[in-house]
């Protein structure tokens, strides 16, 4: 036991399907370990496959009996893999207050990893000669800085005839399937962003045509964006009736997050400048696979001045709301920053209500996972109720942090 105390253990859960199957490299060490001679103490990595129940359950059981106060968990995958593992930790009644999450960006977008300074991609060979590349990562993990990271609950309520669809792959086939819902309600945690509108429709088409190659996937995404320029998707002012926030006692406030118009005999309606194609709710300072500083570069809504807003943070319990006026604006943001419009900052909880009197089909995304939604009633976003103060512990790379 004394010898064990002289080692730093990292539990690495890898998604074998992420990033053009780069995670498959870890299979040769599945349920095994590697020891690195690092200073001031030696380091041990234990490998577990997220997709294999036997492998991942073994890793979770080892974490349960981990005797040190802090448990370092490396997640090799995309943004979706992060909350997958967090959910499994909760299911196994593992104390999240002891766990420190470290992302290894194997996915397509990797905005979570990018926000924490770990970049948006990894080398094609994650080991290198004599495991030199992996040891470089280990040494960075050892000197990383700990922080807290906000997690949010997204809850969607639908009409009785409403439904949500997603794209699923089965061996050699790809298809759109309806998600089985209980009481017409849908729940999913969010760590990066929620969006509604055309950008989610682009991603929905991308999911149908994604490849096993990370670079090719970026080309597919651009092609889907080009195609959607010629298809009609409900704009935000056509699909949303109100966007309101609650107080700490769950009492609805009369104030809307955005400028409203008064119509005699009617409820105030949401009016977002420019008749935008999407509504984007950010928890982080990175979007769409590394598009960063989007909030700080955004234009200001009429009536707001620069000092009305403050810089975003993934640990401040505050969400940022923005919009884009066109697909071209989203696409050109990387080259010409400032295409988005700032709308509001709020700690929530918030509730978005859809128009009631007409059938509606639109699209939304949560952390880069895309959905089609038909006949929704509302979306609420609040601090995650399952986590202490709605936060997880994470490790940041201070040298690579997104400013």
UniProtKB/TrEMBL annotation:
MF-aspect GO terms: ATP binding; ATP-dependent diacylglycerol kinase activity
Keyword annotations: ATP-binding, Kinase, Nucleotide-binding, Transferase
Leading EC class: transferase
The UniProt record lists the keyword Zinc: no
EC number: 2.7.1.107
Catalytic activity: a 1,2-diacyl-sn-glycerol + ATP = a 1,2-diacyl-sn-glycero-3-phosphate + ADP + H(+)
GO cellular component terms given for this protein: membrane
Pfam families referenced in this protein's UniProt entry, alphabetically: DAGK_acc, DAGK_cat
Residue stretches making up the DAGKc domain: 57-158
InterPro entries membership: DGK, Diacylglycerol_kin_accessory, Diacylglycerol_kinase_cat_dom
Gene Ontology process terms (BP): phospholipase C-activating G protein-coupled receptor signaling pathway
Listed SMART domains: DAGKa (SM00045), DAGKc (SM00046)
KW GTP-binding (keyword) present: no
Similarity field: Belongs to the eukaryotic diacylglycerol kinase family.
Annotated PANTHER family: DIACYLGLYCEROL KINASE, DIACYLGLYCEROL KINASE (ATP)
Protein's name in the database: Diacylglycerol kinase
Organism lineage: Eukaryota, Sar, Alveolata, Ciliophora, Intramacronucleata
